[in-house]
């Protein structure tokens, strides 16, 4: 399964609220109708940046396909469907940074339901490795060392997915090595119950600079569609 992650920005002449309405009420039904090879589809409506220096974006889209050929060659059901999608996107999209990823699911929220907004808040983070660390070493440390630490010491973590970036598909965008998804029941849990103990916080925070050089992050509401 190949997963594509799009960091999306609205057109400058529409508000964030209008953008969210156009995506959820207008674009999602069209995408479900005209993308026959799409296996999974999640829309995350961004509320605000979580870390200083993170750019303003409006949504993060997750689209999964069996193969990249399904995306590149069989994305639309027909030329008419392609035309409909392109015309609709022009009405709200100002730009998007796109990444091909390999997804690793470590924990799924029991409250997650297709077709309904997931309760709580989702933290989406784009991660770059530090200078001197290879992408392969970054991935090994992230999956084999950091993920077990996070699962052990983040007691309020309901949803945890790591997306290893295989390539950036757009000309724009940061050269992320990974994109993380962390779900919590509330912003209060994210803020006040991130760690189960002071020792757990020390272990996790000491591990972060070993594989992360820089990071951007956003808070979002998750809308699973397929």
Fold topology:
Blueprint (H helix, E strand, L loop, with lengths): L1 E9 L5 H19 L3 E12 L9 E7 L2 H6 L5 H12 L2 E15 L13 E8 L6 H19 L5 E10 L9 E7 L2 H6 L5 H10 L6 E11 L2
Antiparallel strand pairs: 1-3, 1-4, 2-3, 2-8, 4-6, 5-7, 5-8, 6-7
Helix pairs in contact: 1-3, 4-6
Question: What structural keywords apply?
Answer:
eight-stranded antiparallel β-barrel, 32% helix, 226 residues, 8 strands, 6 helices, alpha+beta, globular, Alpha-Beta Plaits
What's a concise summary of this model?
32% of the residues lie in helices and 35% in strands. It is an alpha+beta fold and 226 residues long.
Notes on the protein architecture:
This protein has an eight-stranded antiparallel barrel with strand order 1-3-2-8-5-7-6-4. It has helices spanning 16-34, 68-73, 79-90, 135-153, 187-192, 198-207, and strands at 2-10, 38-49, 59-65, 93-107, 121-128, 159-168, 178-184, 214-224. It is 32% helix and 35% strand. The radius of gyration is 18 Å and the shape is globular. With 226 residues, the protein is an alpha+beta fold. The chain has a single domain, classed as Alpha-Beta Plaits (2-Layer Sandwich).
């Amino acid at each position: 399964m190949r997963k594509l992650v799009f960091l999306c920005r609205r057109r400058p002449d529409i508000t964030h609220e209008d953008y969210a309405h156009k995506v959820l009420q207008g674009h999602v039904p069209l995408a479900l109708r005209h993308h026959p090879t799409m296996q999974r589809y999640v829309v995350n409506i961004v509320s605000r940046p979580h870390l200083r220096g993170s750019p303003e974006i409006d949504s993060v889209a997750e689209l999964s396909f069996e193969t990249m050929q399904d995306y590149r060659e069989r994305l639309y059901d027909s030329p008419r469907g392609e035309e409909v999608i392109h015309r609709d996107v022009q009405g709200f999209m100002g730009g998007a940074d796109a990444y091909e990823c390999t997804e690793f699911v470590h924990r799924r929220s029991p409250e997650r339901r297709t077709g309904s907004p997931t309760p709580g808040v989702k933290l989406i983070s784009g991660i770059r490795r530090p200078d001197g660390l290879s992408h392969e070493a970054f991935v090994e440390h992230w999956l084999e060392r950091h993920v077990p630490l996070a699962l052990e010491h983040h007691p309020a973590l309901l949803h945890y997915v790591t997306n290893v970036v295989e390539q950036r598909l757009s000309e724009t965008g940061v050269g992320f090595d990974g994109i993380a998804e962390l779900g919590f029941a509330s912003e209060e849990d994210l803020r006040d119950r991130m760690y189960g103990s002071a020792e757990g916080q020390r272990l996790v925070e000491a591990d972060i600079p070993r594989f992360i050089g820089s990071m951007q992050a956003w808070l979002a509401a998750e809308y699973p569609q397929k």
